[in-house]
Amino acid sequence: MTDPRAIPQSAGLDLSINKTLRSAFILLAIVLACAAGGTFVGLGIELPRFKMMWLVFMVVFMGGPFLIRSIRNLQTAILVTCAWAALVGLMMSPMIGRFLSFAGGPTILFNALATTAVAFVALSGYAIVSRRDFSFMGGFLFVGFIVALVAIIANIFLQIPVLSLAISSVVVLLCAGSMLYNVSRLVHDGNADPLMIVVELFADIAVMFSHLLNLFGIMGSDD
Question: Dihedral sign, CA of 137, 191, 84, 28?
Answer without folding.
Answer: positive
